[in-house]
Recover the amino acids of this structure.
């Protein structure tokens, strides 16, 4: 839970593509390309996407949930 609080504090309730790319240690242009085609990345992150005008944002709470689901079992 501590990590999710820090993500909310760092990014707020909505993350930009650049924010998500930073979190995933990816290049923003590469992430944009992956999100705009059929890919596992698009399947995972597009449901968290919110479009406002021409800009895309990602709901931080949903990103936290997705990343927790993707963490390996210990």
């Amino acid at each position: 839970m501590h990590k999710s609080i820090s993500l909310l504090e760092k990014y707020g309730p909505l993350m930009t593509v650049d924010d998500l790319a930073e979190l995933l240690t990816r290049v923003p242009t590469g992430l944009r390309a992956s999100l705009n085609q059929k890919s596992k990345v698009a399947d995972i992150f597009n449901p968290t996407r919110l479009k406002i005008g021409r800009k895309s944002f990602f709901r931080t709470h949903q990103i936290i949930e997705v990343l927790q689901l993707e963490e390996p079992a210990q």
